[in-house]
Amino acid sequence: MSSTLRFLLQKYGPTLTLDELAEALKRKPGGVRAALSMHSEAWAIELNNRKVYVGRRVHFPAEAVADLLTGDPIQKGPGE
Predict the structure, then answer these.
(1) CA–CA distance from 55 to each of 15, 32, 35, 71, 77 (Å)?
(2) Are 68 and 24 in contact (CB under 8 A)?
(3) How many domains does the chain have?
């Protein structure tokens, strides 16, 4: 487990909300929301493929965010 993943799990838990993702990426939530909706950047496409819904809220797995922050290719989850 990378130190980045450990940090994200300790601070945010197993999933991050859009606001928490924006904080981790040091961007504004509106900018992250726009990038995710445009599907023009590779990182946004990969995060969109891994997002999960908890009720109506979108969450992003900490593992996927850690891979993005460390520059590792985002790994597919089990069964994907």
Answers:
(1) 14, 20, 22, 30, 20
(2) no
(3) 1
